[in-house]
Specification:
Number of strands: 16
Largest sheet: 5 strands, antiparallel
Shape: globular
Strand content: 5-15%
Number of helices: 26
Strand order of the largest sheet: 1-2-3-4-5
CATH topology of the largest domain: DNAb Helicase, Chain A
Structural class: alpha+beta
Distance between the termini: 49 Å
CATH architecture of the largest domain: Orthogonal Bundle
């Protein structure tokens, strides 16, 4: 767990304008910066970044958040990954409860930095080598690649020879070179006399980048006859094949614009398709598609289309991709499968039949539901009880891995029709998880009323300037509870969150920890994001006045209640006059403040 105080401090140090401007061209417009929204297509700028609030907001699509949220949304990073990225760029070490001693944690960070620097230097060396390698240039041109595309993907060339990397790394014996997979120690593999040599030799090099654009591995392809045709970096602390996708860093914006991600089988497919007008393509790294791959893609888009060769190997790869998708698919995510003719891969298909034909093939791709039913019924005679039973058996694990959803219900109904059973019989036999019943905590009201009046004014002020929450003492919260229970619940939640972040809290850090655009605070967050900046001292005076007015309302309400009872006993009379004295004191404060203005 990362302490909330650290996250608040990080957001306070980060300049969101610097973060966003790495990816979006911004122009000054008044107190804020404006640009074209990176999360939807638009021609007129509706995307605004506030340096004072440390917050971004799009008036077109509603996207909003702080620097952490922007990195998550734009690059597909996870929450912790985005925090670590920001912290690293600002020289901050993320405190984590990983039970490692500080010295050991520092050593691990230093090692990771050394590996990252080695990969970056190697990538630069391979790119420079390509410029003086006519055979590699001729190979890439023969595949129809332009210099622009080669530069976009950082393609390079590893020269023939055993230790060419020594030119770039005078300390060729450095452990970082072996740990990053750039070189191989023979004695570590075969024993005998020590010999260190380059892993990649006489190959076109495809650098593999993470979502931050850092080189974490390589794929090397032979240009003629040779095995293996593709040679990949080994697993390292930087590079896990089951987690990374080739081309995702380069494809992010294109994926958003196209509305889908196209998953292919190889590096060359990705680069060639980008050349031919399909830059929304990515590829798995010589391994089967994993749930982590699918999860990364679904952070970028709601639709993923897998493209496979039509041969048996392609079908097997598609089945593994299907299994990876089942736990993650739901009613808002679309997964499709595109099978090309056996004589084609995406590259050859586009070159022979054209981009329009490939676009049509993508449009006609098979939905996940249909592919699942085709797979489970393949080679089974559905006219016999045995064939139908086998089909159900094949479908069981896939359906059990799905979360309850309308899509699962539709698949169950289709399977029931295919196998001459009922949906209820399949759900019972498969013991499918059922939707969790929602328990109402307060049945008297179906939906909490939106805060009104003073409590909304107080929330707006505290959200805009979280340190003002220090003014909210127990008496103020009690007054809010007495006068507006629904609004008081939200107000107390907001005050507790602001106070827990400490005096350095900002609007950006506080909004990070509140229910977002679709939650209770969504409307307020958008309202504060859109308003002009107001001096904190004016807000302080306004909040003090609102707290006093709330207490006045509470006093008057209690006085009216006592008066209506007729003040029958002495204790009621004493309480009534005590309240009157308190009310007079508050009214004098108002008069004094007016006199001082």
């Amino acid at each position: 767990m990362i302490p909330q105080s650290f996250i608040a401090d990080l957001i306070a140090r980060v300049d969101i304008v610097d973060v966003v401007s790495r990816y979006v061209q911004l122009k000054k417009g008044g107190a804020n910066f404006m640009g074209l929204c990176p999360f939807h297509n638009e021609k007129s700028p509706s995307f605004t970044v506030s340096p004072t609030k440390q917050f971004y907001h799009c008036f077109g699509c509603g996207a909003h958040g702080n620097a952490i949220g922007f990195l998550m949304e734009y690059s597909g990073q996870g929450y912790v990954e985005a925090i670590k990225d920001l912290a690293q760029s600002h020289g901050m070490i993320v405190p984590e409860d990983d039970h490692l001693p500080p010295m050991q944690r520092a050593e691990m960070q230093a090692k990771s930095l050394a590996l990252s620097e080695a990969m970056t230097r190697a990538s630069d060396y391979y790119r420079r080598s390509l410029r003086t390698a006519p055979q590699a240039i001729a190979y890439l041109q023969g595949r129809g690649l332009s210099g622009e595309i080669a530069a976009k993907f950082g393609l390079g060339y590893a020269p023939d020879g055993w230790d060419n990397l020594r030119q770039e790394f005078p300390a060729y014996e450095d452990n970082a070179l072996t740990e990053s997979g750039l070189v191989i120690d023979k004695d570590a593999e075969e024993g005998g006399k020590h010999k260190r040599y380059d892993r990649f030799r006489d190959r076109v090099m495809f650098p593999i980048k993470n979502t931050k654009g850092q080189v974490i591995g390589f794929g090397g392809r032979v240009m003629g006859v040779g095995e293996p045709k593709y040679l990949n970096s080994p697993e390292t602390p930087l590079f896990q094949k089951g987690h990374e996708l080739y081309g995702l860093f380069e494809a992010r914006q294109a994926i958003r614009e196209a509305g889908y991600a196209l998953v292919t089988e190889g590096y060359m497919d990705v680069v060639a398709l980008a050349q031919m007008g399909f830059p929304q393509s990515v590829a798995t790294l010589g391994t089967a598609c994993t749930p982590m791959h699918v999860q990364k893609l679904l952070r970028q888009t709601d639709q993923v289309i897998f493209s496979f060769d039509g041969d048996s190997a392609g079908r097997r790869a598609a089945r593994r991709a299907l299994d990876a998708c089942m736990p993650l698919v739901n009613d808002t995510k679309t997964i499709k499968f595109l099978f090309l003719p056996t004589e084609h891969d995406p590259d050859s298909f586009v070159r022979e039949l054209g981009a329009d034909a490939f676009a049509q093939a993508i449009n006609d791709a098979m939905p996940l539901s249909q592919f699942l039913l085709n797979i489970v019924s393949l080679d089974h005679d559905l006219s016999t009880p045995e064939g139908r039973a086998r089909t159900q058996f094949e479908a069981k694990s896939a359906l059990q891995s799905m979360e309850p959803s309308s899509l699962r219900l539709q698949i169950v109904r289709s399977l029931a029709q295919l196998t001459r059973t009922t949906p209820m019989e399949i759900e019972t036999m498969f013991e499918l998880k059922q939707p969790v019943a929602r328990v109402r905590a307060a049945p008297a009201r179906s939906k909490r009323s939106a805060p009104m009046g003073l409590e909304r004014q107080m929330m707006r002020l505290i959200l805009a300037h979280p340190p003002l929450a220090e003014l909210m003492d127990d008496s103020a919260l009690s007054a809010a509870q007495a006068m507006a229970p629904d609004g008081a619940e939200m107000l107390r939640q907001l005050v507790n969150a602001a106070q827990s972040l400490g005096p350095q809290a900002q609007f950006a850090s506080l909004s990070q920890h509140l229910p977002g655009i679709n939650g209770d605070f969504g409307e307020l967050i958008v309202e504060i994001a859109a308003q002009n900046e107001i001096d904190v001292e004016l807000h302080r005076e306004e909040l003090i006045g609102a707290i006093r007015n709330l207490k006045i309302q509470e006093i008057k309400a209690e006085q009216a209640k006592l008066a209506n009872s007729g003040l029958q006993n002495e204790s009621d009379k004493l309480r009534y006059y005590e309240l009157k004295r308190h009310l007079d004191e508050l009214n004098r404060q108002i008069i004094d403040e007016i006199a001082l203005r």
